[in-house]
């Protein structure tokens, strides 16, 4: 069955501009239940991540300052969030949820984190609403427990996965692939193992052709035994900050392409949902739910 980590503490005192995108964390599970694709039994609320697991990916001094709410004003501005103990708890639960999803995917093929995709958090920095990097933490957990030997991270959020790239810069067992809008945030890019920076206005056919060509090469050359997929829907033409021109149909085809290859090759995959900032929350929720619908059709 679909195994889905959901965010039970997603509401915090946030600036007005941040409340709208956070609605999706509640609405996605509600929509999937309404459609009959899942029941409450498919959902789990993760606990808090142990500190020793965090330190596999994040520098101790950074983590301790974050934990103790001692980031500088400049670091807090870079994070995008007003710092609070509740926010730190949320980040720990998100990362633990991604680890739990990995363990389920190893047994059942696929699992989802409704939140997650905190790919801007580097080993010693917070940035772009990301404080702890959930997929990096989970990947390092798998490696540390000898549950995986070769990992492929497919990051298709509209923004480069700069934190993920930095964390795995010297880790040959993890291949980082980011396809993103080149002129979008972050404006200082890190170096993934493979970066494809797309020009503003890239449309459906070009996007899908580039992705298809690259995925064929990546799976053949890297030969992963575990896949992480960051399925951001901020690539949509309706997205307020995305800068690409991708339809909901093509976004769904993107998900079919990635998950279809993982299913064909019998590779476990963990999916974190990533960004989505369309003007209408229904556009965000529908595009994210398409990812779940495809997984349901392919795996169940």
From TrEMBL:
Which InterPro entries did the record assign?
HDAC_classIV, HDACs, His_deacetylse_dom, His_deacetylse_dom_sf, Ureohydrolase_dom_sf
Read off the Pfam families from this record: Hist_deacetyl
Q: Which protein family is named in the record?
A: Belongs to the histone deacetylase family.
Q: Which Gene3D superfamilies match?
A: Histone deacetylase domain
Q: Which UniProt keywords apply?
A: Hydrolase
Tell me which residues make up the Histone deacetylase domain: 21-290
The organism's lineage is: Bacteria, Pseudomonadati, Bacteroidota, Sphingobacteriia, Sphingobacteriales
One record GO biological process:
epigenetic regulation of gene expression
- Source organism per entry reads Daejeonella rubra
| Superkingdom of the source species | Bacteria
Q: What is this protein called?
A: Acetoin utilization deacetylase AcuC
Q: Name one GO molecular function term.
A: hydrolase activity
């Amino acid at each position: 069955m679909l195994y889905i980590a959901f965010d039970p503490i997603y509401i915090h005192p946030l600036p007005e501009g941040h409340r709208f995108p956070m609605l999706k964390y509640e609405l996605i599970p509600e929509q999937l239940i309404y459609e009959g694709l899942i029941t409450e039994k498919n959902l789990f609320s993760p606990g808090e991540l142990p500190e020793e697991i965090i330190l596999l990916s994040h520098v101790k001094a950074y983590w301790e300052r974050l934990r103790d709410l001692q980031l500088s004003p400049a670091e807090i501005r870079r994070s995008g969030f007003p710092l609070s103990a509740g926010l730190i708890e949320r980040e720990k639960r998100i990362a633990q949820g991604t680890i739990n999803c990995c363990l389920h995917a190893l047994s059942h093929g696929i699992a989802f984190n409704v939140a997650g995709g905190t790919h801007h958090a580097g080993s010693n920095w917070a940035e772009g609403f990301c404080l702890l990097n959930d997929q990096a933490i989970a990947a390092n957990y798998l490696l540390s427990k000898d549950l995986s030997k070769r990992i492929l991270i497919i990051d298709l959020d509209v923004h480069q996965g700069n934190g993920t790239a930095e964390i795995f810069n010297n880790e040959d067992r993890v291949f980082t692939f980011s396809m993103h809008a080149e002129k979008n945030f972050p404006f200082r890019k890190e170096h993934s193992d493979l970066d494809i920076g797309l020009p503003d206005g890239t449309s459906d056919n070009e996007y899908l052709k580039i992705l298809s060509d690259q995925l064929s090469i990546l799976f053949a050359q890297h030969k992963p035994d575990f896949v992480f997929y960051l399925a951001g829907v901020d690539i949509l033409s309706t997205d307020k900050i995305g800068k690409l021109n991708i339809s909901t149909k093509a976004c769904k085809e993107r998900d079919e392409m990635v998950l279809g290859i993982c299913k064909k090759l019998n590779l476990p995959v963990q999916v974190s949902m990533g960004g989505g900032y369309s003007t209408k929350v229904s556009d965000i929720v529908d595009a994210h739910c398409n990812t779940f619908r495809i997984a349901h059709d392919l795996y169940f």
